[in-house]
Amino acid sequence: MSEPLDPRVVALYDDYCHGQISRREFFKRATALGVVVAATAMLPRYAEAALISFTDDRIRPRYVDYDSPGGNSGRMRGYLVAPAGEGPFPPVLVIHENRGLNPHIEDVARRFAVEGFLALAPDGLAPAGGYPGNDDDGRQMQRALDRAKLREDMFNSANWLAQHELAGDKLGVTGFCWGGSTTNYLAARMGDGVTAAVPFYGSGLKPEDVPGVSAAVMVQSAENDPRINKQWPEFEAALKANDVDYVRHLYPGTNHGFHNNSTTRYDEPAAKLAWQRTVDFFREKL
Questions:
Q1: Residue 281, pLDDT above cutoff 90
Q2: Helix locations, 76-129, DSSP H
Q3: Domain containing residue 270
């Protein structure tokens, strides 16, 4: 970033992203603080941020539908992106934030495919009609879903990907914010069904759930993320107590969401380093 972000705007945007305040309240408070221009700049610009086109000849993207017993509707839809070639390819589940499968997460799935992975980005909003085309409505739709059933949909998505004809034998899982916490959840629930997990700024596990983790874990954390970082000491103690193979990277000066290049929270050097570490980690483990 060329200039540091006003921490007041970052705090407001964090509240907005996590559904604690509405879009209207976000701008109302920004106006009261005299930072409305900076607040406007925080909103995502998906078209400008895409790094890999869906027409890129190195990949084969398509939408897929599959069964999801115990989920919000019994059916799911996801964005499956395979590298060009015959395979098999190491599979990676890519889990979205708290607003459904938006264009940024689809782009992340394409980035993984370019690196040689079979990527599935499930849309947790599929049982409600799918990502609605904007994050505000998507956030409300995801909040309205049954949380346990939504996680069941992610669990079923992981199993579907692991059993795909193009998938290799070892599954990787990654996700961002809500997707980061769900990455941890799947690592605990699926045991040796997940070989490697990379949560980006997601909530940690309760200590009693950590014994289920067999995966190698790489935790990607922003320095200026008090809500998530407050949980880390307890989470790390549980990881150590259960001999989990883990590493944590804390990126100086970054904010929650620093990997998302569609908003001004994006920190290019940190995001590129975190991405390369993630790709290298999956290549090593999968």
A1: yes
A2: 103-114
A3: 49-285
**Cβ atoms within 10 Å of 31's Cβ, excluding its own:** 11
Burial call 185-195: b when 16+ CB within 10 Å, e when fewer: bbbbbbeebbb
| pLDDT tier for residue 11 given thresholds of 50, 70 and 90 | confident
Count of structural domains, the chain:
2
CB distance 75 to 65 below 8 Å: yes
pLDDT of residue 16: 72
CA distance 84 to 117: 10
Instruction: Check whether residue 37 and residue 152 sit in a common domain.
Output: no
> DSSP state, 261?
T
Side-chain-side CA neighbours of residue 179 (13 Å): 26
Work out the burial of residue 131: count CB atoms within 10 Å of its CB; fewer than 13 is exposed, 13-18 middle, 19 or more buried.
Answer: buried
- What's the one-letter identity of residue 159? N
CA–CA dist 70, 83 (Å, integer): 31
pLDDT tens readout for residues 81-120 = 999 999 999 999 999 999 999 999 999 999 999 999 999 9
- Please check whether residues 131 and 189 belong to one and the same domain: yes
- Identify the CATH number of the domain in which residue 93 sits: 3.40.50.1820
Amino acid at 285: K
